Amino acid sequence: WKRITLNHLASKYQKGDPITMVTAYDYPSAVHVDMAGIDICLVGDSVGMVVHGHDTTLPVTLEDMLLHCRAVARGASRPLLVGDLPFGTYEESKEQAVASATRMLKEGGMDAIKLEGGTPSRVAAARAIFEAGIAVMGHVGLTPQAISVLGGFRPQGRNVASATKILESALALQDAGCFSIVLECMPSPVAAAVTSSLRIPTIGIGAGANCGGQVLVYHDLLQMMQHPHHAQVTPKFCKHYGNIGAAINEALSKYRQEVVSKEFPSAAYTPYRISQSNVDDFI
Ligand code: KIV
Ligand code: NA
């Protein structure tokens, strides 16, 4: 299978076919996303929360991202690979943004990068990265890297000023050269208005059905999280397409029980033989 390209995505969008996107963080999740026929595989900085157990995405470094990106790139050969620029790696200057994005392609094996926000400096960073020859995806609405100023993981665009800011950011990011924009956590009519104002596809998450495509976090859609005290709660908008956490828990508990009861390993799982004379000489 050939790799999905920006041209494939554009023609899909033109035909009215929804674009599918899921996150992956390592080799096995990348293989699963690829085998399911997903269009875009996002190595999200949500890795900090769902894989490393942080409460926010802020601690994630570029080195962390590069390690996860390389593992994903080895596992997914068909989806377009998009990697998140983590907090603190693109806000300072256009030069810093281009340098970080370049590493995501050269060292991480990504096809494109994603960055958050639509302020003039973020738009300038997106433009500089695009002009350096790197495909850029935007991300507006709830931008988790801005949690310090947003004051929590809460929906955006619920008043005219906030909705206008989302629309203006999206238009500016499109003008800067973005091939697509993630719309996170906003009322459906706002996402619909943004989507119809753009010529590039929007990818929604908690933004309703009127987007060019949809994205969910791997661990959320699979219901991977089981620990009752875990900080990561599956967001309201996430549908559970499986209960993989429960399946894992069941399997691990059964394994533990069978080792304790000496049911495992039975003869069937004790495959290596040695002749009796060797046993006699050895012992
Ligand atoms: O990091 C991430 O998983 C994301 C998606 C939720 C869009 O940015
Ligand atoms: Na992200």
From TrEMBL:
| Record has Transferase as a keyword | yes
| Native species | Taxus chinensis (Chinese yew)
Say what the protein does. Catalyzes the reversible reaction in which hydroxymethyl group from 5,10-methylenetetrahydrofolate is transferred onto alpha-ketoisovalerate to form ketopantoate.
Keyword line: Pantothenate biosynthesis, Transferase
Q: Name one GO biological process term.
A: pantothenate biosynthetic process
Pathway per its UniProt entry is: Cofactor biosynthesis; (R)-pantothenate biosynthesis; (R)-pantoate from 3-methyl-2-oxobutanoate: step 1/2
Q: What is its EC number?
A: 2.1.2.11
Primary enzyme class: transferase
Which family does the similarity line name? Answer: Belongs to the PanB family.
Source organism superkingdom: Eukaryota
Q: Name one GO cellular component term.
A: mitochondrion
- Give the catalysed reaction(s), semicolon-separated: (6R)-5,10-methylene-5,6,7,8-tetrahydrofolate + 3-methyl-2-oxobutanoate + H2O = 2-dehydropantoate + (6S)-5,6,7,8-tetrahydrofolate
Q: Which GO terms describe its molecular function?
A: 3-methyl-2-oxobutanoate hydroxymethyltransferase activity; magnesium ion binding
What's the name of the protein?
3-methyl-2-oxobutanoate hydroxymethyltransferase
Q: What is the lineage of its organism?
A: Eukaryota, Viridiplantae, Streptophyta, Embryophyta, Tracheophyta
